[in-house]
Amino acid sequence: MRKVVAMLACAACVAEKPPAAISPPQDVVISGATTDCIPSFRVLVSGVHIMAFDPVRHPEILKLLRAMDSVDVNVDGNWPKREAMYSQVLKLADSATALSRDTSEAGGAFSLRSPSRDSILLFAYADHEDFYYEYKMVGGQTSSNINIDMAGCNLPPDAPVFVPPPDTSPVLSVGLTCAPDTLRQGDTLSLVMPVPHGQFLAVEQPSGTWFYIIHPPGYSNPDYSAVPSASFREMASYRLPTDIRALPRVHGRDTLEAVFNEPGKYTILMGEQLATDHGPPTANCKIAFSR
User: Fold this and answer.
1) Adjacency order of strands within the sheet including 264-271
2) What is the pLDDT of residue 18?
3) How high is the pLDDT of residue 255?
4) What is the pTM of this model?
Protein backbone atom coordinates (compact mmCIF):
# COMPACT_ATOMS: atom_id res chain seq x y z
CA MET A 1 0.00 0.00 0.00
CA ARG A 2 2.88 2.37 0.89
CA LYS A 3 4.46 1.69 -2.53
CA VAL A 4 1.22 2.64 -4.36
CA VAL A 5 0.91 5.87 -2.36
CA ALA A 6 4.53 6.77 -3.12
CA MET A 7 4.01 6.19 -6.84
CA LEU A 8 0.91 8.39 -6.84
CA ALA A 9 2.76 11.11 -4.96
CA CYS A 10 5.62 10.96 -7.48
CA ALA A 11 3.17 11.22 -10.38
CA ALA A 12 1.63 14.27 -8.75
CA CYS A 13 5.10 15.84 -8.45
CA VAL A 14 5.71 15.32 -12.13
CA ALA A 15 2.36 16.82 -13.05
CA GLU A 16 3.04 19.93 -10.95
CA LYS A 17 6.49 20.56 -12.52
CA PRO A 18 6.34 23.78 -14.59
CA PRO A 19 6.95 23.45 -18.34
CA ALA A 20 10.42 24.24 -19.62
CA ALA A 21 10.84 27.83 -20.79
CA ILE A 22 10.94 28.34 -24.56
CA SER A 23 14.02 30.26 -25.62
CA PRO A 24 13.24 33.43 -27.54
CA PRO A 25 14.52 33.64 -31.14
CA GLN A 26 18.16 34.65 -31.31
CA ASP A 27 18.94 38.00 -32.92
CA VAL A 28 20.86 38.09 -36.18
CA VAL A 29 23.13 40.93 -37.26
CA ILE A 30 23.27 42.08 -40.87
CA SER A 31 26.23 44.36 -41.41
CA GLY A 32 28.24 45.60 -44.36
CA ALA A 33 28.76 48.71 -46.46
CA THR A 34 26.87 50.87 -48.95
CA THR A 35 28.84 51.52 -52.13
CA ASP A 36 28.71 53.32 -55.45
CA CYS A 37 31.30 53.19 -58.22
CA ILE A 38 33.41 55.06 -60.70
CA PRO A 39 34.40 52.79 -63.61
CA SER A 40 36.38 50.00 -61.97
CA PHE A 41 36.51 51.39 -58.42
CA ARG A 42 34.10 50.98 -55.53
CA VAL A 43 33.19 54.19 -53.68
CA LEU A 44 32.11 53.94 -50.04
CA VAL A 45 28.96 56.02 -49.51
CA SER A 46 27.90 57.53 -46.19
CA GLY A 47 24.52 58.99 -45.27
CA VAL A 48 22.46 56.13 -46.78
CA HIS A 49 19.36 55.14 -44.79
CA ILE A 50 19.08 51.34 -44.49
CA MET A 51 15.97 49.61 -43.16
CA ALA A 52 15.16 45.97 -42.46
CA PHE A 53 11.54 44.80 -42.86
CA ASP A 54 9.65 41.58 -42.42
CA PRO A 55 8.37 40.97 -46.01
CA VAL A 56 5.40 38.99 -44.66
CA ARG A 57 4.18 41.93 -42.56
CA HIS A 58 4.97 44.56 -45.22
CA PRO A 59 4.24 42.98 -48.62
CA GLU A 60 3.16 46.35 -50.05
CA ILE A 61 6.74 47.70 -49.84
CA LEU A 62 8.25 44.74 -51.69
CA LYS A 63 5.45 44.78 -54.27
CA LEU A 64 5.99 48.46 -55.04
CA LEU A 65 9.78 48.07 -55.29
CA ARG A 66 9.40 45.21 -57.76
CA ALA A 67 6.90 47.23 -59.79
CA MET A 68 9.44 50.07 -60.04
CA ASP A 69 11.94 47.65 -61.62
CA SER A 70 9.72 47.42 -64.70
CA VAL A 71 9.40 51.20 -65.26
CA ASP A 72 11.97 52.36 -67.83
CA VAL A 73 12.53 56.10 -67.30
CA ASN A 74 13.98 56.38 -70.81
CA VAL A 75 10.49 55.81 -72.23
CA ASP A 76 8.42 58.96 -72.70
CA GLY A 77 5.99 59.52 -69.85
CA ASN A 78 7.64 57.06 -67.45
CA TRP A 79 9.75 59.57 -65.54
CA PRO A 80 6.83 61.13 -63.58
CA LYS A 81 5.34 57.67 -63.10
CA ARG A 82 8.48 56.33 -61.46
CA GLU A 83 8.92 59.57 -59.53
CA ALA A 84 5.45 59.10 -58.01
CA MET A 85 6.19 55.45 -57.17
CA TYR A 86 9.51 56.42 -55.56
CA SER A 87 7.80 59.04 -53.38
CA GLN A 88 5.23 56.44 -52.37
CA VAL A 89 7.79 53.80 -51.39
CA LEU A 90 9.76 56.34 -49.33
CA LYS A 91 6.56 57.30 -47.50
CA LEU A 92 5.75 53.65 -46.83
CA ALA A 93 9.26 52.78 -45.68
CA ASP A 94 9.60 55.80 -43.40
CA SER A 95 6.23 55.21 -41.71
CA ALA A 96 6.28 51.38 -41.45
CA THR A 97 7.50 49.55 -38.37
CA ALA A 98 10.95 48.27 -39.27
CA LEU A 99 12.84 45.43 -37.65
CA SER A 100 15.86 47.75 -37.53
CA ARG A 101 17.15 51.00 -39.05
CA ASP A 102 20.59 52.51 -39.50
CA THR A 103 22.40 55.20 -41.52
CA SER A 104 25.72 54.37 -43.14
CA GLU A 105 28.71 56.03 -41.52
CA ALA A 106 31.84 57.47 -43.07
CA GLY A 107 33.26 54.52 -44.95
CA GLY A 108 29.77 53.24 -45.80
CA ALA A 109 29.50 50.94 -42.76
CA PHE A 110 26.09 49.96 -41.36
CA SER A 111 24.74 47.37 -38.94
CA LEU A 112 21.18 46.07 -38.42
CA ARG A 113 19.93 43.75 -35.67
CA SER A 114 16.74 41.69 -35.98
CA PRO A 115 15.07 38.64 -34.44
CA SER A 116 15.77 35.65 -36.68
CA ARG A 117 13.21 34.78 -39.36
CA ASP A 118 13.12 33.11 -42.76
CA SER A 119 13.92 36.24 -44.79
CA ILE A 120 14.46 39.97 -44.39
CA LEU A 121 13.81 42.77 -46.88
CA LEU A 122 16.55 45.41 -46.93
CA PHE A 123 15.73 48.82 -48.40
CA ALA A 124 18.34 51.58 -48.70
CA TYR A 125 18.03 55.11 -50.04
CA ALA A 126 19.68 58.54 -49.89
CA ASP A 127 18.99 61.99 -51.30
CA HIS A 128 22.07 62.02 -53.55
CA GLU A 129 20.17 61.63 -56.85
CA ASP A 130 16.60 61.50 -58.14
CA PHE A 131 16.24 57.72 -57.70
CA TYR A 132 19.06 56.68 -55.40
CA TYR A 133 17.94 53.43 -53.82
CA GLU A 134 18.50 49.68 -53.69
CA TYR A 135 16.75 46.72 -52.12
CA LYS A 136 17.43 43.04 -51.64
CA MET A 137 16.06 39.98 -49.88
CA VAL A 138 18.49 38.28 -47.50
CA GLY A 139 18.33 35.23 -45.28
CA GLY A 140 17.28 36.08 -41.75
CA GLN A 141 18.28 32.99 -39.76
CA THR A 142 22.01 33.67 -39.44
CA SER A 143 24.12 36.81 -39.24
CA SER A 144 25.72 37.98 -42.48
CA ASN A 145 27.93 40.64 -44.02
CA ILE A 146 26.74 42.14 -47.31
CA ASN A 147 27.43 44.95 -49.75
CA ILE A 148 24.55 47.18 -50.86
CA ASP A 149 25.40 48.34 -54.39
CA MET A 150 23.50 51.63 -54.70
CA ALA A 151 24.27 52.18 -58.40
CA GLY A 152 24.00 48.67 -59.87
CA CYS A 153 27.72 48.64 -60.61
CA ASN A 154 28.05 44.84 -60.39
CA LEU A 155 31.76 45.07 -59.64
CA PRO A 156 33.57 41.97 -58.33
CA PRO A 157 33.94 41.74 -54.53
CA ASP A 158 37.69 42.32 -54.79
CA ALA A 159 37.34 45.55 -56.83
CA PRO A 160 39.56 48.27 -55.34
CA VAL A 161 38.05 51.02 -53.20
CA PHE A 162 38.56 54.55 -54.53
CA VAL A 163 40.48 56.84 -52.18
CA PRO A 164 40.28 60.54 -53.14
CA PRO A 165 43.72 62.07 -53.71
CA PRO A 166 44.92 64.54 -51.07
CA ASP A 167 43.82 68.09 -51.76
CA THR A 168 46.91 70.24 -52.13
CA SER A 169 45.18 73.36 -53.47
CA PRO A 170 42.58 75.00 -51.21
CA VAL A 171 39.12 75.67 -52.55
CA LEU A 172 38.39 79.30 -51.71
CA SER A 173 34.81 79.42 -52.92
CA VAL A 174 32.15 77.43 -54.77
CA GLY A 175 30.42 80.34 -56.49
CA LEU A 176 29.20 79.76 -60.05
CA THR A 177 27.41 82.05 -62.49
CA CYS A 178 25.91 80.81 -65.76
CA ALA A 179 24.71 82.91 -68.70
CA PRO A 180 22.45 82.95 -70.58
CA ASP A 181 19.75 81.12 -68.62
CA THR A 182 18.07 79.89 -71.82
CA LEU A 183 19.94 78.03 -74.56
CA ARG A 184 19.21 76.68 -78.01
CA GLN A 185 21.18 74.22 -80.13
CA GLY A 186 24.36 75.95 -81.31
CA ASP A 187 24.58 78.38 -78.36
CA THR A 188 27.41 78.49 -75.85
CA LEU A 189 27.00 78.69 -72.07
CA SER A 190 29.44 80.99 -70.25
CA LEU A 191 30.52 80.02 -66.73
CA VAL A 192 32.17 82.45 -64.31
CA MET A 193 33.87 81.09 -61.18
CA PRO A 194 36.19 82.27 -58.37
CA VAL A 195 39.77 80.99 -58.44
CA PRO A 196 40.74 78.43 -57.34
CA HIS A 197 37.57 76.34 -57.42
CA GLY A 198 36.48 72.71 -57.60
CA GLN A 199 38.06 70.24 -60.03
CA PHE A 200 34.76 68.78 -61.33
CA LEU A 201 32.30 70.15 -63.84
CA ALA A 202 29.15 68.12 -64.53
CA VAL A 203 25.80 68.49 -66.26
CA GLU A 204 22.59 66.82 -65.11
CA GLN A 205 19.97 66.31 -67.81
CA PRO A 206 16.22 66.82 -67.21
CA SER A 207 15.87 63.01 -67.07
CA GLY A 208 18.44 62.80 -64.26
CA THR A 209 21.44 61.42 -66.19
CA TRP A 210 24.77 62.93 -65.15
CA PHE A 211 27.66 63.74 -67.49
CA TYR A 212 31.14 64.56 -66.20
CA ILE A 213 32.54 67.25 -68.49
CA ILE A 214 35.75 67.84 -66.51
CA HIS A 215 37.22 65.54 -63.86
CA PRO A 216 40.55 64.16 -62.58
CA PRO A 217 42.09 61.05 -64.22
CA GLY A 218 40.50 57.71 -63.39
CA TYR A 219 36.85 58.75 -63.18
CA SER A 220 35.69 57.42 -66.52
CA ASN A 221 36.47 54.54 -68.83
CA PRO A 222 37.66 55.48 -71.39
CA ASP A 223 39.25 58.35 -69.52
CA TYR A 224 37.77 61.55 -70.93
CA SER A 225 37.84 65.15 -69.68
CA ALA A 226 37.26 68.26 -71.81
CA VAL A 227 40.31 69.93 -70.23
CA PRO A 228 42.72 68.77 -67.49
CA SER A 229 41.06 69.20 -64.10
CA ALA A 230 44.15 70.89 -62.63
CA SER A 231 43.97 73.57 -65.33
CA PHE A 232 40.21 73.96 -64.88
CA ARG A 233 40.63 74.76 -61.15
CA GLU A 234 42.53 77.92 -62.09
CA MET A 235 40.09 79.11 -64.78
CA ALA A 236 37.98 82.12 -63.88
CA SER A 237 35.65 81.42 -66.81
CA TYR A 238 34.78 78.50 -69.05
CA ARG A 239 32.69 78.29 -72.23
CA LEU A 240 30.48 75.21 -72.56
CA PRO A 241 29.06 74.68 -76.10
CA THR A 242 25.70 72.96 -76.47
CA ASP A 243 27.22 70.44 -78.89
CA ILE A 244 29.54 69.09 -76.16
CA ARG A 245 29.81 65.30 -76.00
CA ALA A 246 30.77 63.37 -72.87
CA LEU A 247 30.37 60.02 -71.10
CA PRO A 248 27.14 59.50 -69.16
CA ARG A 249 27.52 58.29 -65.59
CA VAL A 250 25.47 55.19 -66.37
CA HIS A 251 26.86 51.67 -66.09
CA GLY A 252 27.26 50.10 -69.55
CA ARG A 253 27.10 53.36 -71.52
CA ASP A 254 30.77 53.83 -72.37
CA THR A 255 30.70 55.94 -75.54
CA LEU A 256 30.57 59.73 -75.89
CA GLU A 257 27.01 61.08 -76.15
CA ALA A 258 25.48 64.51 -76.78
CA VAL A 259 24.95 66.14 -73.38
CA PHE A 260 22.28 68.61 -74.48
CA ASN A 261 19.99 66.21 -76.34
CA GLU A 262 16.56 66.79 -74.81
CA PRO A 263 14.55 69.92 -74.04
CA GLY A 264 14.02 70.96 -70.44
CA LYS A 265 15.85 72.16 -67.34
CA TYR A 266 19.55 71.31 -67.00
CA THR A 267 21.69 71.66 -63.87
CA ILE A 268 25.35 72.67 -64.17
CA LEU A 269 27.42 71.53 -61.16
CA MET A 270 30.93 72.49 -60.11
CA GLY A 271 32.71 71.15 -57.05
CA GLU A 272 35.65 69.33 -55.53
CA GLN A 273 34.32 65.76 -55.12
CA LEU A 274 31.09 65.35 -57.11
CA ALA A 275 31.80 61.65 -57.66
CA THR A 276 31.60 60.65 -54.00
CA ASP A 277 29.03 63.04 -52.46
CA HIS A 278 31.76 64.11 -50.04
CA GLY A 279 34.03 67.11 -49.69
CA PRO A 280 33.24 70.83 -49.90
CA PRO A 281 29.77 71.98 -51.02
CA THR A 282 29.01 72.13 -54.71
CA ALA A 283 27.88 75.15 -56.69
CA ASN A 284 25.22 74.87 -59.34
CA CYS A 285 23.05 76.85 -61.71
CA LYS A 286 20.03 75.87 -63.78
CA ILE A 287 19.39 76.67 -67.41
CA ALA A 288 16.63 75.87 -69.90
CA PHE A 289 17.46 74.19 -73.21
CA SER A 290 15.33 73.86 -76.33
CA ARG A 291 16.19 72.66 -79.79
Assistant:
1) 182-184, 283-290, 264-271, 200-204, 210-214, 245-248, 257-258
2) 58
3) 85
4) 0.56
